[in-house]
Amino acid sequence: MKNPLVLRKFSLDMIKRNNLSKAKLALSKYVQNSLPSKYAQYLLNESTISYHVGHALLNNFNFTEYKKVYREELITKLTLETILYRHNLSSEPYLEYRNSNLIPLGRDYLLKNINWDLIFSNNVHDIYINKDLSKFSI
Predict the structure, then answer these.
(1) pLDDT truncated to tens, each residue of the chain (138 aa)?
(2) 45 and 26: one domain?
């Protein structure tokens, strides 16, 4: 099944029938078919890069209350739990914020702004810096 609408319908049918393994497989194929490149799936499976990009975007716009925590995470060898404790913050809200806001923001930015047709270029700048500013989006 390559048609995204058929995959979506199939996955919803499998969820209704409580066959979650087939639903997950169908949804995975549905998502893969909607990506700008087959290599973009890496961003869905690995969240570290998306996390850093999300932080960079929000820190540039001063939207995050966790700026100090993130900075300490980068420059110290302390665990996240220790850093959060030092700032009198609990891990659950921070991880929820990270997983619900930062990672999706970074992932979405990368998916939209990487020049996927140049992914194997030796000029890394061209891969990440979209020269067509009309395609630039957050």
Answers:
(1) 455 555 556 656 655 666 666 555 555 665 666 777 777 777 777 888 888 888 888 876 655 668 888 889 999 999 999 999 998 999 998 888 888 888 888 888 888 888 888 878 787 777 776 655 555 555
(2) no
Buried b (16+ CB within 10 A) or exposed e, 52-62: ebbbebbeeee
76 Cβ neighbours under 8 A, 6+ residues apart: 83
**In a 10 Å sphere around its CB, with 0-12 CB exposed, 13-18 middle and 19+ buried, how is residue 117 labelled?**
exposed
Amino acid sitting at position 89: L
Q: Cβ contacts of residue 21 below 8 Å, gap of 6+?
A: none
> What distances in angstroms separate CA 98 from CA 30, 41, 77, 85, 112, one per listed residue?
25, 20, 20, 17, 20
Residue 120 domain flag: yes
Distance, CA of 94 to CA of 99 (rounded, Å)? 9
Range of the domain at 6: 1-34
